[in-house]
Amino acid sequence: MSNWKTEAEVRAEKAKNAPPPKMDAVRKQELDAVLQRIGSVTAVFQMRAEALPVKAFGRIRELMDIYIAGGIRANNEGQDFVHEGIKLSEEETRDLHRLMRDIFNIDMAVEETPAKK
């Protein structure tokens, strides 16, 4: 077995050990603007949902809040949440599961059967 590596193998090793690329300042500003627009949509949703007699529907805003919090965190960490998605904290994951049970009467852990209240 040879100790020599091809150029492709060397590049692959460097890429594997390299830190994730940071986004540039312009993209960060674009994502900040997206988060502000999402926040505006959430505010309008809340205002409209409060007029409805279905309180569970209004709690969808809490799902939006979880998404926004994840987007803010990702953006502050230099991650493009639009392209890479949102990574939830353990607390946010628990909240998401609770909300899905409360709003849609489903248990996220077992998607085939509705949750019991």
Describe the structure.
This protein is mainly alpha-helical. It has one domain. Helices cover 65% and strands 6% of the residues. The chain contains six helices and two strands; from the N terminus they run H-H-H-H-H-H-E-E. It has helices at 7-17, 25-49, 55-58, 60-76, 81-84, 90-104; strands spanning 106-107, 110-114. It has a two-stranded antiparallel ribbon. A hairpin with a 2-residue loop joins strand 1 and strand 2. Helix 2 packs antiparallel against helix 4 (60-76) and helix 4 (60-76) runs antiparallel to helix 6 (90-104). It is elongated, with a radius of gyration of 21 Å.
Based on helices, strands and strand pairing, what is the structural class?
mainly alpha
Residues in β-strands, percent? 5-15%
**What's the alpha carbon Rg, rounded to whole Å?**
21 Å
Broad shape: elongated
Question: Mean pLDDT, nearest integer?
Answer: 85
Domain count = 1
As a percent range, the share of helical residues equals 55-70%
Distance between the termini: 63 Å
Largest sheet: number of strands, sense, barrel closure: 2 strands, antiparallel
How many strand units? Answer: 2
Uncertain spans = none
Element-level helix/strand string:
HHHHHHEE
The number of helical elements comes to 6
Arrangement of strands in the largest sheet: 1-2
